[in-house]
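Why this split exists: single-chain examples teach little about how molecules sit against one another. For that reason, every record in the complexes split bundles all components of an assembly together and asks for one structure covering all of them. Below is a record exactly as it appears in the raw files.
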Amino acid sequence: MKALTFKRYSKSPEIGFTQVPRPTIKPDELLVEIHAAGLNPIDNMIPTGMFKPVLKFELPAVMGSDLAGIVIEVGSAVTKFKVGDAIFASLFDLGNGSITEFAAVPERVAAQKPDTLDFVQAASIPMVGLTSWQALKERANIKSGQKIFIPAGSGGIGTFAIQLAKYLGAKVATTTSTGNVDMVRKLGADEVIDYKKQEFEQVLSSYDLVLGTTRGDAIEKSVGILKPGGKIVSLIGPLDKAFANARRMNFFLTFVFGMMSRKIMRLAKKKNISYSFLFVRPDGAQLNEIGNLLKTERIKPVIDKVFPFEHAKQALEYLAQGRAKGKVVVKIK
Ligand SMILES: NC(=O)c1ccc[n+]([C@@H]2O[C@H](COP(=O)([O-])OP(=O)(O)OC[C@H]3O[C@@H](n4cnc5c(N)ncnc54)[C@H](OP(=O)(O)O)[C@@H]3O)[C@@H](O)[C@H]2O)c1
């Protein structure tokens, strides 16, 4: 089958189409014919080798992790799905990729595709949906009326997380550039800061939660807008000791991650707030709950651009520019 792969970890990882064997499934897996693959910034980071100590792939590795498609075969131990079901899933952290024609998908990470969404819309959801869910609901347990700062409201994460936070009853502030101000307001943001004109740390105060989504010194500056007891849940790092411990990493990596997060931990302690790094995990049961919110249109997918399969590499290059308004998706079938 045809797949977009990278051949080595490097600045020039040789990304291109390759013929790879069609997967054979284990008893707890589904063989899925992929109709669409959603892209995420980490798809561009993995081939550089920056996640090599954390994410394991056999090379050449199939790129991408989000998918929507049709089940064409089920393993002997599968109970929740049958041949012909339309599903969506994240293969993140499973050593497997989605920018290809078929994938073996463990039953535990798949969910029925909401029938109100087409395959492209469904494939845009898994990583941003699960990350937002795990950050806002699971890690921060946000409550109605709390104030949440979600920077980069126009990105893949921002467009989903703003809608989820509003659904949970929070008051949401976000940042974006001038051209996207209306877009993020329409998604529900209560306070919109045009970062080309204003610094968020001079406008916001007494927040309960910051979702760390933008690089540079934004995480450190966020400390100043939180109330005592507030939280930073960062998606971009620095990685911390708790992350290393949860993944049972060796002493050396645990030490390195501890050092990387030392400064933010110190700042957080001084202000009586908490800092943690979140690494999304695939979860079919959560994706099912997310699917229910999509089905009832409480949350809507926001798609920026759809590329045909042959242009998957250009789709990744487009995403790498960092200007996507919502999600970038590759239509495979
Ligand atoms: N830890 C995890 O498990 C996890 C999971 C998912 C994502 N992530 C990370 O989370 C980050 C966000 O992901 P994403 O999917 O949302 O990326 P994305 O879709 O590529 O984000 C693009 C958006 O970011 C906005 N943006 C860029 N710089 C900005 C700034 N300084 N201030 C405000 N907005 C800015 C852009 O808006 P303008 O054009 O208006 O600037 C654009 O709309 C990435 O670093 C990703 O790797 C981590």
